[in-house]
Amino acid sequence: MKSIRTDLALEAREVLQEQNQFHIPGVRVDEEEKDGVKISRVHIISPLGEEKLGKPQGNYITLEAMDIKNRDPEYQENISSLLAQELGKLMNLNKDSVTLIVGLGNWNITPDSLGPKVVGRVLVTRHIFEYIPDQVDERIRSVCAVAPGVLGITGIETGEIIMGIVQRIKPDFVIAIDALASRKTDRIGTTIQIADTGINPGSGIGNKRMGINKDTLGVPTIAIGVPTVVYAHTIGRDCLQLMIDEFKNQAGPISSFYQTLERMDETQLDIMVQQVVSQELGDMVVTPKETDLMIDYIADILADGLDLALHENMSLEDVKHFLN
Amino acid sequence: MKSIRTDLALEAREVLQEQNQFHIPGVRVDEEEKDGVKISRVHIISPLGEEKLGKPQGNYITLEAMDIKNRDPEYQENISSLLAQELGKLMNLNKDSVTLIVGLGNWNITPDSLGPKVVGRVLVTRHIFEYIPDQVDERIRSVCAVAPGVLGITGIETGEIIMGIVQRIKPDFVIAIDALASRKTDRIGTTIQIADTGINPGSGIGNKRMGINKDTLGVPTIAIGVPTVVYAHTIGRDCLQLMIDEFKNQAGPISSFYQTLERMDETQLDIMVQQVVSQELGDMVVTPKETDLMIDYIADILADGLDLALHENMSLEDVKHFLN
Amino acid sequence: MKSIRTDLALEAREVLQEQNQFHIPGVRVDEEEKDGVKISRVHIISPLGEEKLGKPQGNYITLEAMDIKNRDPEYQENISSLLAQELGKLMNLNKDSVTLIVGLGNWNITPDSLGPKVVGRVLVTRHIFEYIPDQVDERIRSVCAVAPGVLGITGIETGEIIMGIVQRIKPDFVIAIDALASRKTDRIGTTIQIADTGINPGSGIGNKRMGINKDTLGVPTIAIGVPTVVYAHTIGRDCLQLMIDEFKNQAGPISSFYQTLERMDETQLDIMVQQVVSQELGDMVVTPKETDLMIDYIADILADGLDLALHENMSLEDVKHFLN
Amino acid sequence: MKSIRTDLALEAREVLQEQNQFHIPGVRVDEEEKDGVKISRVHIISPLGEEKLGKPQGNYITLEAMDIKNRDPEYQENISSLLAQELGKLMNLNKDSVTLIVGLGNWNITPDSLGPKVVGRVLVTRHIFEYIPDQVDERIRSVCAVAPGVLGITGIETGEIIMGIVQRIKPDFVIAIDALASRKTDRIGTTIQIADTGINPGSGIGNKRMGINKDTLGVPTIAIGVPTVVYAHTIGRDCLQLMIDEFKNQAGPISSFYQTLERMDETQLDIMVQQVVSQELGDMVVTPKETDLMIDYIADILADGLDLALHENMSLEDVKHFLN
Q: How far apart are CA A210 and CA A202, in angstroms?
C-alpha cells in the first residue's frame, strides 16, 4: 500500500481488488448510478476494515462524474444536488445548526487552492444571525467559513488554527474542503469524496499532521475532497502495471518475464518502482495543463452543493440572489 | 470630529490644530527627521487626551515618507529600517519571544488587501521551532502569521478568530497590519502608523467591532497601518475648507461670507457638508488609479521592516536567503 | 468645459444644460425607458454640435441602469439584451461578418481592467471558421478578440497595435471596450455608453493619443465604455456646486456670497477650483472600495451583451454551452 | 522520435545518443561550464542535421542551472548575466536597434504564463524614444513588448498578430518568450534554451501553427524558452526505459526479457508505450506542485537577462531604478 499514494477510500479498495481481495472483512460497499453520476459508498465498520484500507472507520461516499469534462450546466447542477443529498444524510441539521466550512490549502498554489476558493464562493450567513437577527430569512441556516492557510505560510498547524476558532464560536458541524491526490488521472477534477471521518494525519496533499476530525475538534466533522493531482511516481507505477498486463497475453521470453513479475508480490514491485522512478520524480505531480480552469469549475460545484445542503428549500437561483 | 474620518492620531491632532488648539492637554508630541522620513510620536497620556483625540491612551508613531513616490530602492530600505527601529522600541523582544502577525482586510478588495499581502511576504519561522528545532538558525525568532479574512466572507468577527488562535498558540506579541483611511490624499501609500494600542472599535476601513488589543487578546498588541484611501466625503469637506481659506484673503461680499463661515463652528460646518455631499458620495473612496501597484510596494516595505525588527542581526539580504 | 473631465456625451450635454443651454444646435437627443433602464441617444449631427459637446459627430447611446446595485440576475440579463439591441442598430451584421473586439486598458490596474476582462469572457469563434470550418454552428458569426495592453507596458501605442492587427485580419467591424471617467459617482459601474465614433484622442482614462476609429482603422468602429472612476478634482468642483445650490436658498451674507458666485462665469469658477483643489488631488480617482467586484460584474454584462449581439438567435444559455 | 515530445534541441540530441548515435552529421556541439551553469551550444549546420534532430538549421544554446532550486540570489544574477551574454552573441545590437519582445502563452494557465509574465516585468522604453526623446538616457535602447494571447482566447493565430505588429512598428529584432515541454522533469524551471531559429510549427506547448521566425516576420527572431512541464506520457516512456536499464543487470528470465526489449527498436517500443499509456494520460502534464512560484522566479531571471542584454552598461541595480 505504501507506494500507492491515494486519498480516496474507493481507490484504496481498488488496490485490494487488484490483488484479488474482493471480500474485505469490515468493509461494506454499495453503489448506484444517478443522473450520470456513479455514487459509491464505502463503509468501514471494524478495526480490521480500518487496517485493510488504511483509513479510519466511517463512511466514505464518492461521486464519480466522468462527464464533467463536457461542462454541461445541467449536469453541473445535478452533481451539486447529489452532493447536497449525500451531505444531508451525514448531517443531522436542524433550524439552529451552525456550520463552519474550512477551506484547507494554499491560495497561491493552483492545485492546492480548491478549499480557499470554495470558501470565497459559499453563502455565508452567520454574521446576519449574530448582528442583524431580524433580517434573517427563514430559509437560511447559520454558516461561516474560513481559509486558515498552510503551515509554510502561517507557521501554525492548520489544525491548531481551526481548533482555536471552533473553541470560540462553537459550531455544530465542521466541513473541511481539501484538494486530494488520486492514483488515476481520470479522477482529477471528476471525483468528489465525502467522508464523515474528517481529515486524518497523512491524508490530503498538504502538510497536515494534526487530525481535523471529531476527536480533535469535539464536533462532527465532514471532509469533502476532490483529486486535483496524481503524484508522478504513481504514474510510473501504473505504467509498469499496464506493461505487465500487456505482456500477459504475449508469448516467448516476454511471457516468462510476466511470470516472473506475477510471482513478485506487490511489495517487491513497489520497492522496485520506488528505487527506479522516485528519485527522478520527487514531488512532481501530474495535472491537466488547464488546472486553473478545472479548479474554478469544481469550486463552483462544491459551493453550490454546500449552499443547497446547508440551507432549507433554497434553489441555486435563490442562492444567487442572496449572494449578490 | 465626526465627519472627519481618519485612522491616524497625527491627523486627529491636526484637526485640533486647525481649530487653533495647539496645546492639547494629555497629549505629548515629538518629531524628528531621519533619512528623508519625518517621524512623529504622539503620546496620549491621560483620559483627557484620549477624549480630545478620540483615540485610546498609548503611543502612536507615524513615519511620513513623502519621497516614496520616487521608488528609490535605497530610500525604500531606509523606511523599512526606521520601521524596524520604532517597532523595536515598542516591543521588548527576547530570544524566546513568539510573535503573531495578523493581516487584517480582504484579499479581493485591492485597497483593503494590504494586511493579507504582508502576511504572504513576511518571514515565518514558528514551524521550524516547533517541528525541526535543531534546524533553527540562532539569528531567527519565532514568528507566525495569519490573514483571517473579513466578516462578510467568513461570517465571523475577525477579533474572534484572532482570539481563538491567540488562546491556542499563546504568542508573546501580536502585530496587526491594516489598511487605513486618512484625511489627506498625500498620505495614501506614504505614511505608516505604528500604535501600541492595537486596533480599536471604529478604526480601520473594514468591519471591525471587537477590539484587537491587549484588553481583548491578553498580550501586547501593536497595530501597523498605512492609509490606502481617503473617504470621498472627506474630499468634499476639504474642498470647502480650501475655498474658505481662499476667500479669507478676498474683499467684498465674499469676505462677509467668510466671516459667516468663520462664525459657524466645526459641528455646523460638518452637518452642512454631510447633508450636501454625503448622500452622493456614500462609501466612495479616493485612491490613486494605480492602487494595485502602490499596495504591492508598501507591502514589501512593511514585510521587510517586520523581518528586520523580529529577528536578530539579520540584514534584508539574509532574509532573502531565508525566504527562498 | 475643460476642468470637467467626462468621457460621456450625456454628461457633456448635462454640463451645457446646467449652464441653461437647453437647445444645443447640431445635437438631437431622444430618451426612453425600458425594463428599468434609461436609454438616452445623443446624436451629434453637425460641426457646431461637435464643437459644443467636444465630441466628434456620431451617435452616442447611453444605458443608465441605476438598479444594477441590487445585483438582480434578471435585471442583469435585461441590460445585456438592451445592449445587444442597441449594438444591433449600429452594426449591419450579415452571415459572414467578422468582428474584432478590442479590450483597452491595463490588466494590472483594477479600474482600468474592464476591457481585458471582457476579452477574457466573450465567445470567440474566428478560429473555428478558419481552422475547422465544418464544425461551425450556423448560429455563430466570426468573432475574435485582443487585449493589446497599454503604452506604459508595451512601449507601443495601442492604436498602432490594433492597426497592425486590423490590416492583417481585415475584420468588418471593430468594437473597442474601455473604462471611462465620468463626472458623477453614481454613474460608476451603472452606465454604459455605446458610440459609433470609436475612441478619439483625449477620451478614455488611459494613455491614447491615436484615434481608434473608422478614420484610422478603415472599418466601422464602435466604442463601448463604462465609467469606473470619477477624477477626484471633479468631486471638488461638484462639492462647490452643491454648496452654491445650497446657499441659494439662504438669507444674509451667504445669500450675497451666492450672488457673487452666480456672477462668476463657469470659467472663472473652474479656474478657482483648479487652483484650489487640483494640486492636492493630482490624478487621484474616486471609486467604490469594491471596484474589483464591480468590474467583474459589469464585464459579465458586457460580454453577455456582445455575445447576444454578434451571433444569431443565441440565448445566453446557448452561449454558456458554447463557452464550456 | 515521435513519441518523445521535446522542445529542446539538447534533448533531441540526447535521444539520438541514447540510440548510440554519437556523431550526428550536420550537428556541431560545444559545452562549457561557468558559475555553476552548464552551457551547451548545439549548432545544426546542414539539412541532414536538421532532419536528424527534427529542428531547423541554426544555433541552440542551452543554459542548465540545476542549482536554481536553492534560490540563491547571487546564482540567480549569474544566470541572468549568462543569458545576457549569450543573447549578445546572437544579436548585433547597435545604438538605434529596436527590439520587440513577444510573450507567448496564456495568462490564465499557470504553466503557460511564462511569456506574458516576462513581458510584464521587462524594462520597456520605446515610448520614451517616440514621445519624449529628450528624456532618453544614453544607456537605454528602444525596447517594446507584447503578450498577444493564445488562439483559444483571441480567435487569431498568434503569428498573425505578431506579423501585424511587426509590419507597423518595424523592429530590428524580435525575441519570443515561451514555455516549453521537456522530456525530463529535472529540466523544468532549470533550463533555458535560446535559439536564433525563432518559434517553428509544432514547437512550444501551446497552439502555434505559423512560424514566428525570420522567414515569416522578415527580421531576425530569437526564441527563449524554459520547460515548465513534461508530458505525462513521456514519463510513462521514461519509466519503461528505467526498468529496462534496471533489468539489464539481472539474471534469469528478466534478463531474457531485457534481450527482447533490446531487440525491439525504438519505434516498436514507442508504439507500445503509446498504446498502453497515452489513452489514459491524454494531455496530462507533469509539473512541480509549486508551479506558480517557479514560473514567477524564472520570469524574473529572464526579464533581468533581457534588460542586461538589450541596454548598454546597465546593472540590474540601474534597471531597478528605471523600472520604478
A: 9
D322: pLDDT confidence band, cut at 50, 70 and 90?
A: confident
Residues of chain D neighbouring A287 (CB-CB closer than 8 A) = 284-285, 287
Could you tell me what percent of chain C has a pLDDT over 90? 60
Q: What is the pLDDT of residue D236?
A: 72
Smallest Cβ distance to C156: which of D151, D157, D169?
Answer: D169
C297 touches chain D (CB under 8 A): no
- Contact between B69 and B185 (Cβ < 8 Å): no
Q: Which three cell numbers stand for residue C320?
A: 454558456
How do the domains of chain B map onto residue ranges?
5-228+291-323, 234-281
- Picking from B180, B174, B176, B175, the residue whose alpha carbon sits closest to that of residue B8 is B180
Of the residues D71, D316, D322, D323, the best mutation for testing chain B's interface (the one with the most B CB atoms within 10 Å of its CB) is: D71
Calculate how close chain C gets to B73, using CA atoms only, in Å. Answer: 21
pTM value is 0.89
Residues from chain A that touch D180, judged by Cβ atoms under 8 A, are: none
Contacts of C245 (CB under 8 A, 6+ apart): none
Could you tell me if C229 lies within 8 Å of chain B, comparing CB atoms? yes
Q: How far is the alpha carbon of A244 from chain D, nearest alpha carbon, in Å?
A: 10
How many contacts (CB atoms, under 8 Å) link A and C? 16
* Alpha carbon distance C95, A270 (integer Å): 61
- List all residues of chain B from 52 to 81 with a beta carbon under 8 Å from chain D: 70-73
Please name the residue of chain C whose CA is at the shortest distance from the CA of residue A320.
Answer: C73
Most confident of A161-165, B277-281, D268-272: A161-165
Q: Go through D100-134 and write b for each residue having 16 or more CB atoms within 10 A of its CB, e for each that does not.
A: bbbbbbbbbbbbbbbbbbbbbbbbbbbbbbbeeee
Model pLDDT, residue B249: 61
Q: Are D7 and D105 in contact (CB under 8 A)?
A: no
Q: Mind listing the pLDDT tens digit for each residue in B12-37?
A: 898 888 777 888 899 999 999 999 99
Give the best residue of B107, B143, B153 to mutate against chain A (max A CB count within 10 A).
B153
* CATH T-level assignment (fold) for domain A5-228+291-323: Rossmann fold (3.40.50)
Q: What's the CA gap between C128 and C119, in Å, rounded?
A: 17
- B60 to each of B43, B68, B90, B213, D308, how far by Cα in Å? 6, 21, 10, 14, 44
The B residues from 257 to 296 touching C (CB cutoff 8 Å) are 257, 259-260, 272, 275-277, 280-293
Contacts of A321 in chain C (CB under 8 A): 72-73
Does the structure show a pLDDT above 70 at D313? yes
| Pairing outcome for strands B173-182 and B221-231 | parallel
Q: Give the mean pLDDT of D121-140.
A: 92
- Residue-wise pLDDT for A34-81, tens only, equals 999 999 999 999 999 998 898 999 999 999 999 998 888 899 999 999
Rg (CA), chain D: 21
Whether residues D185 and A286 touch (CB distance < 8 A) is answered with no
How far apart, in whole angstroms, are the C-alpha atoms of residue C262 and residue C166? 51
| Residue D143 buriedness (CB in 10 A; 0-12 / 13-18 / 19+) | buried
Q: Establish if D155 touches chain C: CB-CB under 8 angstroms.
A: yes
**Are D317 and B73 inside 8 Å of each other by CB?**
yes
Cβ distance of D286 and A291 shorter than 8 Å: no
pLDDT for the residue B40: 97
A126 reaches B (C-beta below 8 A) = yes
What is the pLDDT, as a whole number, of residue B6? Answer: 79
Q: How far, in Å, CA of A204 to CA of A218, rounded? A: 21
C250 and C243 Cβ atoms separated by less than 8 Å: no
Radius of gyration of the CA atoms of chain B, in A: 21
Amino acid at B308: L
